[in-house]
Amino acid sequence: MTATDRAVELIEIAAAAAADKLASGIIAYDVSEQLVITDAFLLCSAANDRQVRAIVDEIEARLRLAGVKPARREGEREGRWVLLDYIDVVIHVQHADARSVYALESLWKDCPMIPLPEPAITAGGGADGTGGGEPR
User: What average pLDDT does the segment 57-76 reach?
Assistant: First the structure.
């Protein structure tokens, strides 16, 4: 089983939105074989709390245009780690410090990566800033 075409489409839209707000470390995983509750995860980082909020707002705006609204939104008050749950996809926008502490990549490293659009790869870079989003 792999992520649905719709899930991949939403991941691509969200990744492009994050890149436009200068998110770093933009990567996506197909977690459909590991989890029954969602198909894909998108992870990205921001340098500060204000940027976390700007990235989240842009992702929500673009996905709203694509016809979806989050079923759940967590962590906005603190602004260090915001989770947007769109059922088919879950998006994690983390402050760079929180991302290094929680290291979600290590939890999902065995899952296939979802290739991201060029702007997200170029602007966002990998989790280490070297150009993620490319399949292994």
Answer: 96
